[in-house]
Hints:
Layout: H1 2-26, E1 30-31, E2 36-39, E3 42-44, E4 48-51, E5 56-59, E6 73-75, E7 81-84, E8 89-91, E9 94-96, E10 100-103, E11 108-109, E12 114-116, H2 125-128, E13 141-143, E14 148-149, E15 154-155, E16 160-161, E17 166-167, E18 172-173, E19 181-185, E20 188-193
Parallel strand pairs: 1-4, 2-5, 3-6, 4-7, 5-8, 6-9, 7-10, 8-11, 9-12, 10-13, 11-14, 12-15, 13-16, 14-17, 15-18, 17-19
Antiparallel strand pairs: 19-20
Amino acid sequence: MNYILNIYWKIYALKNLIFNKITFKRKDIIYTDFPKISGIILITGQGRLELGTQVKFNSSRRSNPIGGDTKMIIDLGVTGNLKIGNYTGISNATIIAHDNVVIGENVKIGGSVKIYDTDFHSLQPTLRKKSETDIPNTKSIHIKNNTFIGAHSIILKGVTIGENSIIGAGSVITKSIPDNEIWGGNPAKFIKKIELLHT
C-alpha cells in the first residue's frame, strides 16, 4: 500500500512541476533558479514577475493546512511588477501587483496572507457605476529583508514594512512600519521593539 501511495505522490508532484513550468514559460517569468513549489501556482495578468534564488511557494491545503486557501495566487494586472528576493518563502498567499510590489530577501509570509497594491475600484460612487470610469488608486508596497508576516494578515497599498519586523497573525496593515518592530491588530498597532541578537 505504501509503495502505491509513493508512486501516486511522485506522479502528482511531477504533474504539478510540469504545469508550473508551463505557466512560467507562458508568462515569461524571470528567475535565477526555478522555485520550489508545493502544489500548483496560479499567475494571472500581463505584468512582470522576477524571482531570486531558492524561493519557495506553498500552494495547496496539503502543503500548509493553516493557509485556508487551496493555492498561491499572483495577479500582475496589465502593467504590474512583482519582485521576490532570495530565500523567501510564501504560503498560500494572494498577491495583487497592479502597480509595484517588492518583497525582499529571507522574508517569511504565512498562510493566506493578502497583499493588495490597489483599491480595486474607484473611491467615488459615481465613477464606480461605469467600468470605463471605475479606475482604482494604486500605490507600491515594499516588504523589506528578514520580515515575518503572520498568517491571514492583509497588507494594503502604499505600505513599507521595515527590515526584521514581524506582523502578528490576522493583522491589517494600513500604514508603514519601521525596521525591527512587532505590530499587530486591526488596524495594526505598535507592540514592541525587537532586540536583535548579534552573533
